[in-house]
């Protein structure tokens, strides 16, 4: 029994020692983030923040995002302009619905393209996937601004 008690006490002391050493060597600083996690803006790429800021600058009521990056909706705090939050999941037979949704919502700005992988799923970019939608966007959103791997198109600057 004394041997078992000594073993338990030794294990407790060893765990306590490693805990104290971990705290002393800043190995557990991540625990602080559990109580105050990083903001969404700090958790995404610079390009996503830039694109989201542009949409907010233009006071969009909804997000039309050809980059298929739903986190932009979260940063802008606006719903999608279409039932297809990620247009890539719409089939080519839904292209007319995407155009109609964009026409009806008529946001002053939209996320047009990105170098992020979600813009070109299966090696097919959104321009090739939806050529009529692309033409509609180019015609109705003639102004483009790009930064950090994202491009936003505007109705007017």
Regions with little confidence, pLDDT below 50 for 5+ residues: none
Range of strand content: 5-15%
Largest sheet: 3 strands, antiparallel
Shape descriptor reads elongated
Assign the structural class, choosing from mainly alpha, mainly beta, alpha/beta, alpha+beta, or little secondary structure: mainly alpha
Order of helices and strands: HHHHHEHHEE
Whole-number radius of gyration? 24 Å
* End-to-end C-alpha gap: 82 Å
Domains counted in the coordinates: how many? 2
Helix content bin: 40-55%
Given the structure, what is the number of helices? 7
Strand order of the largest sheet: 1-3-2
| Average predicted local confidence, pLDDT | 86
Strand count? 3
Word description of this protein:
The protein is mainly α and 157 residues long. The chain folds into two domains: 2-35; 40-154. It is built from seven helices and three strands. It has helices at residues 2-24, 30-35, 46-57, 71-76, 95-105, 126-129, 131-140; strands at 109-114, 143-147, 150-154. A hairpin with a 2-residue loop joins strand 2 (143-147) and strand 3 (150-154). The mean pLDDT is 86.
Short key terms for the protein model shown above:
single chain; about 160 residues; mainly alpha; 3-stranded antiparallel β-sheet; 7 helices; 3 strands
Quick recap:
This protein is mainly alpha-helical and 157 residues long. It is 46% helix and 10% strand.
Topology (SSEs and partners):
Elements: H1 2-24, H2 30-35, H3 46-57, H4 71-76, H5 95-105, E1 109-114, H6 126-129, H7 131-140, E2 143-147, E3 150-154
Antiparallel strand pairs: 1-3, 2-3
């Amino acid at each position: 029994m004394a041997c078992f008690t000594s073993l338990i006490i030794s294990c407790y002391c060893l765990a306590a020692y490693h805990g104290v050493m971990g705290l002393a060597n800043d190995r557990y600083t991540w625990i602080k983030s559990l109580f105050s996690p990083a903001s969404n803006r700090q958790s995404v790429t610079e390009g996503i923040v830039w694109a989201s800021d542009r949409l907010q600058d233009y006071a969009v009521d909804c997000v039309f995002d050809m980059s298929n990056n739903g986190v932009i909706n979260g940063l802008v705090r606006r719903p999608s302009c279409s039932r297809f939050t990620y247009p890539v999941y719409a089939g080519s037979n839904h292209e007319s619905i995407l155009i109609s949704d964009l026409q009806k919502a008529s946001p002053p700005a939209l996320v047009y393209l990105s170098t992020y992988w979600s813009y070109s799923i299966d090696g097919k970019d959104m321009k090739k996937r939806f050529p009529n939608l692309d033409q509609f966007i180019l015609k109705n959103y003639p102004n483009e601004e790009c930064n950090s791997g994202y491009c936003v198109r505007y109705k007017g600057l």
